[in-house]
Amino acid sequence: MKLKTLTTAIILTTVPMTGAFAAALDRSGQSIAAFLQPGNYFEAGISVLDPNVSGNVKSGWTPNPALPAANIGLENTSVGEMAGDYYFPSAALKLQVTDNFSFGLIYDQPFGADAEYKTDTKTTSAALPPALANQGAFHNGTEGTSVEVKTQSLSMIFGFQPTENWNIYAGPVYQTVKGDVQLRGVAYGGLAAFGDYNANIDEDGAAGWLAGFAYQIPEIALKTSVTYRSEIEHKIQVTESLGASGLAATINPALGYTPGQTEITTPQSVNLDFQTGVMANTVAFANIRWVNWKDFAIRPNDFGHASKFIPGKAQGFDLVAYTDDQISATVGVGRKLSEQWAGNVSVGWDSGAGNPISTLGPTEGYWNVGLGAQFSPTPQTFIAGGVKYFWLGDAKAQVASDFGTASYVANFEDNDALAYGLKIGYKF
């Protein structure tokens, strides 16, 4: 029984929201499923994430153990909803130039972050010294800690099909990255350290590459692929300020300061995709993804220099870093319901990238369940949509100077997220 048409119809419904709320900065999942569709093909889609992420300042935490009064009003204080809604578009074009050669373009936004501590949580006790009054754990007055990172990626893929069963592909990848970060409040050291730090990451473009191979047996709807994506190294001009912090004085050539660019290297990754027919009109599918977050770090030039003046941190520390690599998996079943309708159900898991983790993204992996549906008004066109519900892993949030230790400043528990996706496609 040939399932080639069934394969195309059902597996496309799994594509919206492949990543959505993954570990560290991972977002799109970097799928190349569109490039592996038969014939000529175009798709465009959008995914939307609505997270609910909040926590509480750690019981007993104080920004300065030598100053117990600094803890007044902070213990068990809610840090409020800190994860912002966001969306990311995607698009792909695949051309079967000859029987043996194909070409593809895939646009996505692979990595990103959007977090802001909005709640005006303050410590107003008269027992506090003026330097710490009106500063919450993650706030300074009404101004909160925030981070926004955006990337865009365009992959150009060249494929060679020596037989109907094999597809060998590779190509260059162009990626841009930009962002803004501000740190506020006594969790980052108040006026003694980074409680008034700002960084604007200018947009920068750089190139990397991908390569992989796929094997298929159309008669039984079997298709498997392995895709490797390289690191992409950016050298970026970051505009930084330390506000009124005492560390502002360290940005001085007399103290060893040297102006310079900041290196940000987005991580290498491997995607493994598999599907097979299991009965008439039904296929099973799976995706496994590995991302090398353990070797990822961001240390802006001025920040890195100033961090060396923190007591006990002579080597300095990173603004953002992770202790573990990310592994995620999705498994599911898709079924053709009629000539025009198909659907799927899926279950997903993500390992996270370490715990404790940065206050700028305090979740530790997830479990999710998803439902997808596809309507094909004609054999050449389709509209696909889906929804996923995420149970986000509990996390202990730590500031940058505590990285690599068990210390943390806040607990984030019982959080969740909803993701929605919509896609249109055309086969020609």
Structural account:
It is a single chain. The chain is mainly beta. The chain has one domain: Outer membrane protein transport protein (OMPP1/FadL/TodX) (Porin, Beta Barrel), CATH 2.40.160. Helix content is 4%, strand content 50%. The chain contains two helices and 26 strands. The protein has a 14-stranded antiparallel barrel. The radius of gyration is 24 Å and the shape is globular. About 6% of the residues have low confidence.
Helical proportion, percent range: under 10%
The number of helical runs is 2
Written as H for each helix and E for each strand, in order along the chain, the element string is HEEEEEEEEEEEEEEEEEHEEEEEEEEE
How many separate domains? 1
CATH topology: Porin
Let me know the average pLDDT. Answer: 86
Overall outline: globular
Structural class: mainly beta
Compute the separation of the termini in Å.
24 Å
State the CATH architecture. Answer: Beta Barrel
CATH class: Mainly Beta
As residue ranges, the low-confidence spans are 5-16, 120-134
Identify the CATH homologous superfamily: Outer membrane protein transport protein (OMPP1/FadL/TodX)
The tally of beta strands, per DSSP, is: 26
Instruction: Indicate the radius of gyration in whole angstroms.
Output: 24 Å
Largest β sheet strand count, sense and barrel closure = 14 strands, antiparallel, barrel
Q: Which strands sit side by side, in order, in the main sheet? A: 1-3-4-8-9-10-11-15-16-19-20-22-23-26
Main location: membrane
Subcellular location: Cell outer membrane
Signal peptide: 1-22
Membrane topology: Multi-pass membrane protein
